[in-house]
Every structure is written in structure tokens, then in C-alpha cells.
Design brief:
Phage tail protein beta-alpha-beta fold, alpha+beta, Jelly Rolls, 3 domains, transmembrane, 31% helix, seven-stranded antiparallel sheet
Length: 312
């Protein structure tokens, strides 16, 4: 039993929605994040209202704008809105590849948080799905077409010259020429790693790139690269519960840890997101990896409801 009186249900819903609607209200401070946590801790009803508002945002992509106008103007709510902005912008709520939102989109195969899965397709090709991955399969007499909607997968392709094996991801595609390769969504780009054989990477209005074993490339609006050497064993170490990083941005490490961790790690600073990180991290000990990140980079951590952590 709480020691205070909760607002009427409709009023509480409006307050919770306001945290979400005004997610672009400005830069958050550690104090703002603490204010959000305090608001959710006021009662179980507050926490549930906030979770429901977040769930609705993920389903609809937005909330009614009148919510913002009618929301209470209490000091703790105004300060918490800035913290909400960091949480939602950092997570990219509109990408429905998260546990809750992913259920809204039908996929032939999908995995949840910390879940990996191997499937055998009708031609004998095998697919290893990383955590938080969704893909569709469309086989015909003329082609084998895969759509990777989110996450990452390693493809072990059975050779069949009469039916090309094509994986589509965002605005590009990867055609296998009898091979093993990974396709991975990373923020605003897609990474392709060729482990065995050869693949052809195609994008609209561009010449295709040929990747051989031990090569990788990225494509996307904000991050594209030419083929370059890669240690494919290190790049695909997630299949052995490991992440191997060598001078890669902290944002990429956080993105991978979030596939295996309940809640979210949020980077509230662009400068922190760009910090280079090296090390070997165990995917079954994500909190240990989080603490290593915090201490080695000298970051401040703010812990929020739902196992969310804001790093800055």
C-alpha cells in the first residue's frame, strides 16, 4: 500500500504518455534520469502506466499530441521528460525488432532477447539466427529469397546454380555463390562478413561488390565501406557466446550487448558512443561487461526501472 494517493487512471495515463510524447524535449542530465526513476517508483501504478505508454508508442509510432498539452506541468515530470528523450532516442523505439514490438510483425523465423536458433531450410541450407532477429523465407522453383528484417544471421548455403540464394537486408542484397556468410543489421548500416566461398553484395544504382572469404563490408545511408580484410572467426564469435572488439565504437558494443540483456543500456553522450573499445566480452555475463565499460572508460551509470542503464 503506497503512502500517497495516485491520480485517477485517466490522469495517470496522460502523465505517462507525456513522458513519451515529449521525447525530443532536450538533452537529459543524470538528475533528469533520476527524476524519471523516482516518478516510476512512486507506485506500481506509475510504473505500469509508463510501461503501457512505451508499449503503445512502439505499436503506433506516436501518441496523441493533445497528451502533451494536457499533461501536468509538475517539476518532476518536466525534468523526467528530458530523460525519457535519451531513453527513447537511444533505443530507436520505432524499430519493431524488440521483444514486444517484434510480436506485431509476422516473421517466418524470429528470436528474442538472449535467444539463438538454428533452422534448416527446405533445400538443406542452414541459418544461425542471433538474438533479436527476424527473417522471412520465400522459396520458389526459380530462386531462394530471404529477407532479414532485423538482427543478424549466418547462412550456410547449399549449392544450387539453378536457384540463386539471395538475402535482402535494408536497401541491399547479398547473393551467395556456395558459401558461409553473415548479414548483420548495425544501427543505420548493414555489415556483411564472408567466412567461406564468395558472395556478391548489391545496392541500387551501384556496381556489385565481390567479397571473398576473410573479407567484410558495410552498406547503408550513413555508413558504407569497400571490401576489407576481417578475421571472420572473431567477427562471428557470438556463436560461442563471445564478442571480440578491437578499437570499435562503444555504440556498437552496446548494441550487441542489448541483444542479450533484459532492459537496455543507453548511451546519453555522442562522445561516449564514439569512444573506441577493445576486449573480449562474454554474452552470458552482460552485467559484467557493463561494469567493465563503465569503470574502464570512466563513465557514470544511472540505473532506471526495467533494468535500463543510462551511461554518460
Amino acid at each position: 500500500m503506497t503512502s500517497h494517493t495516485d491520480p485517477a487512471p485517466n490522469e495517470l495515463t496522460r502523465q505517462a504518455n507525456a513522458w513519451v510524447v515529449l521525447l525530443t524535449s532536450g538533452q537529459a542530465t543524470v538528475e533528469d534520469a533520476r527524476a524519471l526513476r523516482e516518478w516510476c517508483d512512486l507506485s506500481p501504478e506509475h510504473a505500469r502506466a509508463y510501461q503501457e505508454a512505451a508499449r503503445l508508442w512502439k505499436q503506433l509510432g506516436r501518441l496523441p499530441m493533445e497528451t502533451a498539452v494536457r499533461a501536468p506541468r509538475r517539476r518532476y515530470l518536466r525534468s523526467g521528460l528530458a530523460a525519457c528523450a535519451v531513453l527513447f532516442l537511444g533505443l530507436g523505439w520505432l524499430q519493431l525488432d524488440q521483444d514486444i514490438g517484434g510480436r506485431l510483425v509476422a516473421s517466418d523465423y524470429r528470436t528474442g532477447t538472449a535467444e539463438r536458433r538454428e533452422v534448416v531450410l527446405e533445400d538443406g541450407s542452414r541459418v544461425e539466427l542471433d538474438a533479436r532477429t527476424r527473417l522471412d523465407v520465400d522459396y520458389s522453383t526459380e530462386r531462394r529469397h530471404i529477407v532479414l528484417k532485423g538482427g543478424a544471421a549466418v547462412f550456410h548455403v547449399q549449392h544450387d546454380t539453378s536457384r540463386p540464394f539471395v538475402v535482402e537486408a535494408d536497401d541491399g542484397s547479398v547473393t551467395a555463390l556456395g558459401t558461409v556468410f553473415e548479414v548483420r543489421h548495425q544501427a543505420s548500416s548493414v555489415r556483411v562478413v564472408c567466412s567461406e566461398g564468395v558472395v556478391a553484395v548489391r545496392q541500387p544504382n551501384q556496381q556489385p561488390h565481390r567479397l571473398e572469404a576473410g573479407q567484410q563490408m558495410r552498406y547503408g545511408e550513413a555508413d558504407s565501406s569497400a571490401p576489407q580484410p576481417v578475421d571472420s572467426a572473431e567477427a562471428l564469435a557470438w556463436r560461442k557466446d563471445l564478442l571480440v572488439f578491437k578499437q570499435r565504437p562503444l555504440s556498437e558494443l552496446v548494441e550487441e550487448l542489448n541483444r542479450y540483456r533484459r532492459g537496455r543500456i543507453i548511451l546519453a553522450s555522442d562522445a561516449a558512443a564514439r569512444r573506441p573499445v577493445s576486449g573480449v566480452f562474454h554474452l552470458q555475463r552482460t552485467d559484467e561487461a557493463l561494469e567493465h565499460i563503465r569503470s574502464s572508460l570512466g563513465l557514470t551509470a544511472t540505473y532506471l526501472p526495467g533494468n535500463w542503464v543510462v551511461l554518460r
